[in-house]
Design a protein that fits this description.
It comes from Caenorhabditis angaria. With about 350 residues, this protein is of the alpha/beta class. The chain folds into two domains: about 220 residues, Orthogonal Bundle (Poly(a)-polymerase, middle domain); about 120 residues, Beta Polymerase, domain 2 (2-Layer Sandwich), CATH 3.30.460. About 45% of the residues lie in helices and about 15% in strands. The chain has a five-stranded mixed beta sheet, with helices on both faces. The chain has a three-stranded mixed beta sheet with strand order 7-6-8, with helices on one face. α1 packs across α5. The two termini are about 30 Å apart.
Length: about 350
C-alpha cells in the first residue's frame, strides 16, 4: 500500500469542511468563557464559608480540556478544576477522595441556577456534572499546592499546536468521525471509540514518530515535568517552534492518511504508546481488548475506556481501505468516511 495518495485534494476538502462545520466558533467560545466566569464566581461564593473552618482555601479556578486547548467542538463540555490550596496532599487515597467528595457535595447542594446537576462519587476523578444556561460542564477538585496535571496537559496540547498548526484541524476531524454517542435509554456508549484525550495522544505520538514535531517530553523535560510545573500560559516560546512550522508542507489529508497507516502497521493490539518515547513499545502478548498509553500527565491509562481495541483497529483498516479506493470520488469518499458509515461498521463488528 502506498504511503501517499495520488491526489489528496478531495479528502483534504472534506476534512476542511468537517473542521469548519464542527469547530468551536468565536461566538460559542465567547459564550463559554462568559459561563466560566460565572461558574468561578458561583464556586467562590458557595465555598467561602465552607473551606476556612477546615483549613482550606481556593487558590485558582481554571478551565482545562478541549475548550482550554482550542481543539473543542461546539458540543464540547466545559471542564473546570477547582484548585484548593493545602499542604500534606500527595497521591490519591481514600481520605483525599472523601474530602473531594465532601466539597463537591457541598457545591451540589448550594449551587443555584444549574441544570441537571449530578455528583458522580465513583468516577476515577470525582466530578460534579450538569449544565449552566445549556452549556454542559464538569467540575473537579485538585488538592495541594502544586499545579494540577490537567492544567499542564492542556498547556502541552497548546504547545503541540505551536509546532504543528494543523493539529486542531486533525483532532476535530478525527473526534467528529469517531464520536462516541450515549444511548438515551441505557445511558451507555453505543459505539466503542477511544475518548477525545486518547485520540489526541495517538495523533501526538504519530507526529513525534514521523518527525512533524519534536518529542516535547524530552526536548523540554524541565517545562513539562509536573513536579516543576508553573502556572505559565506558554511553556515554549513561539520562536523555538518557528523552524518546525516553516517546514510544514503536507496537507491535513496527507498527514491523516499517514496517521491511519501508522496505526495499521503498528496496531494498538500489539503495541503500547509511551508518550516519552518516539517509538512504540511491543506488548509481550497480543491483546485484543486493551489500548495502553503511558502518559506523564495521567497515572491511570488514558486508553482504558476503550473496551475492545481489536474492533477499533478493524475500523481504522476499513477507513483506510475506503479512502484509498475512493479518494478521487467526492460523493463516495464522503459516504465511506461519514460518521454513519463508521458507526454501522463498528456496530456490526460488535455483534459478531
Amino acid at each position: 500500500m502506498s504511503n501517499t495518495l495520488s491526489d489528496s485534494s478531495v479528502l483534504n476538502e472534506h476534512i476542511m469542511e468537517v473542521y469548519a462545520a464542527n469547530r468551536e466558533n468565536p461566538i460559542s467560545i465567547q459564550r463559554k468563557n462568559h459561563i466560566f466566569d460565572e461558574i468561578r464566581v458561583d464556586v467562590y461564593l458557595a465555598l467561602k464559608e465552607f473551606l476556612p473552618p477546615i483549613g482550606l482555601k481556593i487558590s485558582r479556578i481554571v478551565p482545562f480540556g478541549s475548550v482550554a486547548c482550542n481543539i473543542s467542538r461546539t458540543e464540547s463540555d466545559l471542564d473546570v478544576v477547582i484548585c484548593i490550596e493545602s499542604t500534606g496532599f500527595g497521591c490519591e487515597d481514600n481520605w483525599t477522595r472523601s474530602l473531594k467528595n465532601q466539597i463537591l457535595e457541598h457545591l451540589f447542594k448550594n449551587l443555584e441556577d444549574y441544570e441537571n446537576l449530578g455528583h458522580i462519587w465513583t468516577a476515577k476523578v470525582p466530578i460534579l456534572c450538569g449544565s449552566k444556561k445549556n452549556i454542559k460542564l464538569d467540575l473537579s477538585i485538585h488538592l495541594g499546592v502544586d499545579v494540577p496535571s490537567c492544567h499542564i496537559s492542556s498547556r502541552f496540547l497548546n504547545t503541540v499546536t505551536q509546532f504543528y498548526p494543523d493539529f486542531p484541524i486533525l483532532i476535530i476531524f478525527i473526534k467528529t468521525i469517531f464520536k462516541n454517542r450515549i444511548n438515551e435509554v441505557t445511558k451507555k456508549k453505543e459505539f466503542d471509540y477511544p475518548n477525545s484525550y486518547t485520540l489526541a495522544l495517538m495523533v501526538i505520538h504519530f507526529l513525534v514518530n514521523q518527525s512533524y514535531i519534536p518529542n516535547l517530553h524530552i526536548q523540554y523535560a524541565d517545562r513539562f515535568d509536573i513536579s516543576k510545573a508553573t502556572w505559565a500560559y506558554e511553556m515554549v516560546d513561539k520562536s523555538e517552534s518557528q523552524e518546525w512550522r516553516e517546514k510544514l508542507r503536507e496537507t491535513p489529508a496527507d498527514v491523516f492518511y499517514k496517521f491511519l497507516q501508522y496505526y495499521i502497521n503498528n496496531p494498538v493490539t500489539h503495541y503500547i504508546i509511551v508518550m516519552k518515547r518516539k517509538d512504540l513499545v511491543f506488548k509481550e502478548r497480543y491483546d485484543p481488548e486493551g489500548l495502553i498509553i503511558e502518559d506523564p500527565f495521567d497515572d491511570y491509562n488514558p486508553g482504558r475506556s476503550l473496551i475492545c481495541s481489536k474492533i477499533f483497529q478493524d475500523c481504522l483498516w476499513n477507513l483506510l481501505s475506503n479512502i484509498r479506493n475512493h479518494h478521487l470520488d467526492p460523493k463516495k469518499l464522503r459516504e465511506t468516511i461519514s460518521e454513519e458509515q463508521l458507526r454501522g461498521y463498528v456496530s456490526t463488528k460488535k455483534s459478531l
